[in-house]
Write a structure and sequence with these properties.
Blueprint: H1 11-26, H2 36-41, E1 49-53, H3 60-72, E2 77-80, H4 94-105, E3 110-114, H5 122-131, E4 135-140, H6 143-152, E5 158-162, H7 168-174, H8 187-203, H9 207-211, H10 217-232, H11 239-251, E6 255-257, H12 259-265, H13 271-283, E7 287-290, H14 297-302, E8 305-309, H15 312-318, H16 326-341, E9 345-349, E10 355-360, E11 365-369, H17 376-393, E12 397-402, E13 407-411, E14 414-420, H18 421-427
Length: 428
């Protein structure tokens, strides 16, 4: 071993770890092909550093294996920094790591680094070798840390890709169900799709939770994020308050929240504490915050927010009574699909204080989610909110996503398209 380097572990342990990791990676179950793989394929040959980020156990390692299998042949190095044998790995160890990889597997120009955020200042090594022509595909579970590092030393050199739980289409593939032609759906197909989308609402899209339904994957995942990704990383002493806040949020997904009310309800010290905790939860991919649409940034900041979970299956397993409100689950699933397609999303309050679930500012479209649009009172309320909001924004793109109703409503020279959830998800 070169004496100017000092490892916190032996060279022998490093070599054996790297060999075992590669062997296991090459045998990795490829699962179903993720939809995002085609998007990544367009940038795989670019010089950019590819950063794949998402919740723990959402399938980042599997996506890496799919990428390697499909595009990289055998021409890559693979290192998983979540391995406990690399627990004390530091920036100074990267040179020896590279030397070991060359010694074991020969010269290669592409690095696959899994869960890189565990290593402080990892971006220094990546930038240095990237400047020398090496390619990096990197995964990580903490959006905040990755963003900070991308924003400092890797500005202009990287492309970030967010990986979500299975979409409904991917869920169907997992269930070995064919994707039907939605323009030619018959009554039997619609009935089957309704059953499948209801399963999707309950089970969610975390791959391992679907693959091993008898194991408590959701609870273990939830605890890992709380205690490993948040409590330890941010050195939180008041674990009880964090746990209570998280449980409240997971039990109230698709609902409005007020930081001030949460502070009082949970007896937290200040509004800033609530904001910080929610930021940590969002950075760790458990939740998303949705702002109310307003022309003023200040008004957006002080208005109530809406909270959505990363996965309805996780909410059903961990939260309280969420499964009894199918409308909330439907809204959460619609949000997740919109989030993957469009970052410019808000909820909307008309001047008459009537709410529309989603406003896509870029194309001026409004989407309302309503389980039972057959109910006259519900139907009138949802249509009124959409028309009021559309008139304020000069919009003509109006949609209601229902459980199974399909119709075109014409009112006040506007068309409102009512679409079953399963059909809307298959269109995305």
């Amino acid at each position: 071993m070169n004496p100017k380097y000092s490892l916190s572990f032996s060279q022998e342990l490093l070599d054996s770890t790297l060999k075992e990791q590669r062997k296991l990676f090459l045998k990795h179950d490829l699962g179903i092909q993720r939809n995002i793989l085609n998007q990544i394929s367009k940038i795989i040959k670019s010089p950019q550093i590819v950063i794949i980020t998402g919740l723990r156990r959402v399938g980042k390692s599997t996506l890496l294996a799919q990428l390697a299998h499909k595009y990289l042949k055998n021409n890559f190095y693979y290192v998983n920094f979540e391995d406990d044998r690399l627990l004390d790995f530091q920036l100074k160890d990267f040179n020896l790591l590279h030397q070991s990889l060359i010694k074991l597997f020969g010269q290669k120009k592409t690095f696959l680094f899994d869960e890189i955020q565990n290593i402080p200042q990892w971006e220094r090594f990546v930038r240095r070798l990237h400047d020398r022509g090496y390619k990096f595909i990197i995964t990580g579970s903490n959006a905040s840390l990755l963003s900070q590092e991308l924003g400092t030393r890797l500005t202009g050199r990287s492309i970030k890709i967010n990986l979500y739980p299975f979409s409904f289409k991917e869920f169907l593939s997992f269930k070995k169900q064919p994707i039907p032609n939605i323009k030619k759906l018959n009554k039997k197909q619609r009935k089957k799709l309704l059953k499948l989308v209801n399963q999707y609402l309950i089970l969610g899209g975390i791959p391992d939770a679907l693959k091993y339904p008898k194991l408590n994957i959701h609870k273990n995942l939830y605890d890992d994020v709380l205690y490993r990704d948040i409590t330890t990383r941010y050195k939180i002493d008041n674990q009880k308050s964090l746990k209570e806040l998280t449980f409240y949020l997971v039990s109230n997904s698709s609902s409005q929240i007020s930081y001030n009310k949460l502070k009082n309800l949970l007896k937290l010290g200040s509004v800033n504490t609530v904001k910080n905790y929610i930021d940590y939860l969002e950075n760790s991919w458990l939740f998303f915050i949705l702002n109310k649409y307003a022309y003023s940034i200040k008004e957006q900041q002080i208005a109530n927010k809406k909270i959505y979970s990363i996965d309805t299956g996780l909410v059903n397993s961990v939260g309280f009574s969420f499964s009894k409100n199918k409308g909330k689950m439907m809204e959460n699933v619609v949000f997740l699909q919109l989030k993957q397609n469009n970052n410019d999303i808000y909820f909307y309050k008309s001047q008459q204080n009537h709410e529309v679930d989603f406003f896509l500012h870029k194309d001026k479209s409004f989407i309302q989610v309503s389980q039972n649009i057959d109910n006259t009172e519900t139907r009138n309320r949802e249509i009124r909110s959409l028309i009021e909001s559309a008139q304020e924004q000069s919009s003509t793109k109006l949609q209601i996503i229902s459980e199974q109703h399909k119709e075109i409503v014409k009112q006040k020279k506007m068309k409102i398209f009512i679409t079953p959830l399963y059909e809307w998800l298959l269109q995305q």
